[in-house]
Amino acid sequence: MNRIDTGHVLSSSTISGDKVVNRAGEDLGEIKDLMIDVDTGRVAYAVLESGGFLGLGSKLFAVPLPAMEVDTEHHRFVFDQDKETLKNAPGFDKDHWPDFADRTWGASVHSHYGIRPYWE
Q1: Three-class HEC string of the chain
Q2: Contact predicate 59/93, CB 8 Å
Q3: pTM higher than 0.70 for the full model?
Q4: Could you tell me if residue 9 is inside a domain?
Q5: Number of domains composing the chain
Q6: How do residues 8-59 score in pLDDT, each as one tens digit?
Q7: 118 domain residue, yes or no
Q8: N or C: which end of the chain has fewer CB within 10 A?
Q9: What is the mean pLDDT of residues 64-84?
């Protein structure tokens, strides 16, 4: 596995829909979207869609990109979280997205996953 920041350059359309698993190989969901901080030009979050069936009843999670690794061999991302931790993570639904520019909200998301905010 390689960290996402070791020279991989991928298009957002290539990543959208990619499967996300944890280290145990459990399915956590898939990448729904990428959120870009236009001031820095950096991908701030991957939006992970988890649970539900055919998009119904699913929950969305903002995941700081450095919290995941890209598994190029299997065309997926590895997110070192168990299902229970993800279930208890701050999430949102498709009709009520958070303000991704809110640094207080962002700091709480980064803290939940033990990742230092990229803007610090």
Answers
A1: CEECCCCCCCCHHHHCCCEEECCCCCEEEEEEEEEEECCCCEEEEEEEEECCECCECCEEEEEEHHHEEEECCCCEEEECCCHHHHHCCCEECCCCCCCCCCHHHHHHHHHHCCCCCCCC
A2: yes
A3: yes
A4: yes
A5: 1
A6: 677 788 888 899 999 999 999 999 999 999 998 889 999 999 986 665 678 9
A7: no
A8: C
A9: 90
Q: The tokens 């979207």 sit on which residue?
A: 33
**pLDDT of the residue at 68:** 94
CATH number for the domain spanning 64: value is 2.30.30.240
Query: Residue 3 corresponds to which tokens in the numbers above?
Result: 């960290």
Conformational region of residue 105, where left means phi above 0, alpha means psi within -120 to 50, and beta covers everything else: alpha
61 touches 51 (CB < 8 A): no
